[in-house]
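User: quick one, fold this
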Amino acid sequence: MNAHFTSNDFRAALGAFVTGVTVVTTRDPAGKPHGVTANSFSSVSLDPPLVLWSQAVTSKSHPAFCGSDHFAVHILAEDQIAISNHFARSRDDKFDDVLHTDGIGDIPLLAGCVARLECAKVAAYPGGDHIVFLGRVERISCSDRRPLAFHGGKYARCPVLDDCTT
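Assistant:
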């Protein structure tokens, strides 16, 4: 095993792990909506229902997520690449041309996702150049749509496995 590696080596190794693609949304204390594309999302606990996601401390919307008590995680569908790209770019008001409704804590909710988890922020922990947000899921919505995946720095489609039994 090589103990010496570059950040590009580390990024390439992490890219071997297939992840889903999410958009996480919130409102800052002044009421302005914020959203960011993230694939650093994971379940933590079923009882109580907890999830986590992480955000770079250099992100323009970082103060909004730190200052908010709620956030929503939107698990994107395979046809929502444009939404993912939209929220991945830095701009002042990402919601100018995006239809949304309001959920728990007045957080903006996007339509058409595979699943949506509305969360109360439980904690935020430092994690290197990121902050890890822990949320208690308060409401969910699900559909039977196929999810958008990310692998090796590219979007991918999830194959349907007819029989996974051995």
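User: anything notable?
Assistant: The chain has a mean pLDDT of 90.
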